[in-house]
User: Which sequence fits this backbone?
DNA sequence: GCCAATTGCTTGAAGTTTAAAGAAATTGCA
DNA sequence: TGCAATTTCTTTAAACTTCAAGCAATTGGC
């Protein structure tokens, strides 16, 4: 009887505990910060996080974006974006225009109102985030950025391998 | 005229850009992994992520947990947990029992079926996560753990300061 | 013991989210 | 050209989520 291999098999049926703990910690951090941002957005601006996120994507460009672009960037489903855009057009923050060369395509832009309101929120938002990470040194931040970039690459590789 | 202070004021109206980029990267990582886990859970086990998360909390304990405990640990609202538990009791995965000493309190446990199914899923889940972080060295993982712990502490401090 | 405050949970409304199916338009290829 | 794939977007159903209001039970002064 091979005691070594027996013991190993029982105690280390592949030790993936550290990765799991890492994932849970990552998730906890994100959930915590997301909840905080959500609360503050509601409290100070009476706006939901998804709407803020959508406007943030649109604020980056001047000439509009299609629904598909939005759903890819926000990493949510197409149908989801349809509904969000609908409500934001309704409230006067967004402007939708059908493409002249491809009638399936809708270009979405921030209205003047939408951009003005977003800019106000974004300024505050940036301060909140700075405060949230206030205990981290510049070096900590650089290191986190680097490691998260590596993690992102790894996760993309893993996701791609599955769907292939 | 003081050129220095002028320039500074224009170019650095508080530079919080790095923190914001860090937050977006953190969020992207989490969203990416979460989406991957969600897909695989649905695909292989036909279960939703929230249900898996809830069962994961209950699997840690043998003698059950109250709804409040669950909502605190999962960092979601009370009403949310009520609905989730309801559906999982319905499907035979959970068991609810009213406390004898405090009739407001409900103790929730995994049924035999629930625990068996969860264990199967958890084994697979752990492998997925190990693969997701597969490109990271043990040292990378240790560093990420450390920095995320620091970030979590910082975020908690920030959240607490606001609500105070 | 009384009763205001607190705690545990549920409910209802509004919104977000996904997955899946489908409609409309365009593209590419034989 | 013809028409099968593809792309873009919408729709639908079910589930998830939050917030706020509310109910019932318990607790902590007094």
Assistant:
């Amino acid at each position: 009887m091979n005691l070594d291999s027996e013991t190993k098999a029982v105690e280390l049926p592949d030790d993936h505990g550290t990765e799991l703990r890492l994932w849970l910690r990552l998730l906890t951090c994100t959930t915590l910060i997301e909840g905080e941002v959500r609360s503050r957005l509601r409290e100070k601006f009476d706006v939901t996080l998804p709407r803020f996120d959508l406007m943030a994507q649109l604020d980056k460009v001047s000439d509009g974006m299609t629904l598909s672009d939005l759903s890819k960037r926000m990493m949510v489903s197409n149908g989801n974006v349809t509904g969000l855009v609908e409500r934001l057009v309704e409230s006067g923050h967004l402007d939708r225009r059908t493409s002249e060369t491809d009638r399936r395509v809708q270009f979405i832009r921030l209205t003047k109102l939408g951009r003005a309101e977003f800019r106000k929120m974004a300024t505050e938002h940036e301060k909140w985030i700075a405060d949230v990470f206030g205990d981290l040194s510049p070096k900590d931040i650089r290191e986190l950025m680097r490691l998260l970039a590596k993690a992102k690459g790894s996760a993309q590789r893993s996701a791609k391998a599955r769907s292939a």
Summary: Chain A has two domains: 49-132, 133-164.
